[in-house]
Amino acid sequence: MTDSLDPVTAAIVDGGIVAILRAPSAGGFAAVADVLVAAGITALEVTLTSNGALEAIAGLRRRLPAATIIGAGTVLTPDDAKAAVDAGASFLVSPVLDALAGQSVPCYPGAYTPTEVYSAYRAGAPLVKLFPAGGLRPAYLKDLRGPLPQVRILPTGGINLDDIPGWLTVGAAAVGLGGPLVGDAADGGSLTALAARAERAVAAVAIARS
Q1: In which pathway does it act (predicted)?
Q2: What is the per-residue pLDDT for 102?
Q3: 26: which of 150, 179, 188, 203 lies 20 to 30 Å off by Cα?
C-alpha cells in the first residue's frame, strides 16, 4: 500500500526501481536518463560523487517529463543535502542517517542491521536503504521484516537484474540498481545495451508483482 506515503516515495514504490547514475563525470547522464525513462524507469538518483552532479540534477529536471523523479545520492553532509535540493532534487539518499535531518524532501538513509533500520524508521524515513545489499540474500530481508513489517526497505548495492524478483517477492518496496543496470553507458558505452537492460529490469518488476 502506498496511500499513506508522500507522492515522491509512492511513485518510487509503484515503479519498483531507482536507477543510480554514478560515473567520474555526469556529462553522459542526460543520454542515459533518456534511455531509462523511455524503457519505463521513472526514478533516477544522481550520485554527488560524480563530477557535475548538481548541474546534472538541474538539467535532468528541465529535460525530462514532469512525472520523472530526480533525486540525489551519496549525500554525506547537510550542506550536500541543501545543495541537492536547491538544484532540484526531489529526494535524497545517503549511506548514513545524520546527513539527512531536517530536509524538505523525502530522505532515504542507509542501514544494514536491524537496529540501524529501525533507527532510520524512527527518525521518519519513508524508505530505508538496505546497503550494501549485494552481500546479503533476500532471506535476510524476509527475516528483517518479520519483526519490522512496518518499515519499507530499498535494497541497494550489488543487486543484479536476476535478483530483482527475489527481493521484491520477500517484501522490498523497490530496488536500487547501479552498475548492473547502467553499466558503462554513462562513460560512452552502448545505449542500445542499456535499453535492453532497462527493459529487462522493468519486466522483472512486473513479473515479480503479477
Answers
A1: Carbohydrate acid metabolism
A2: 87
A3: 203
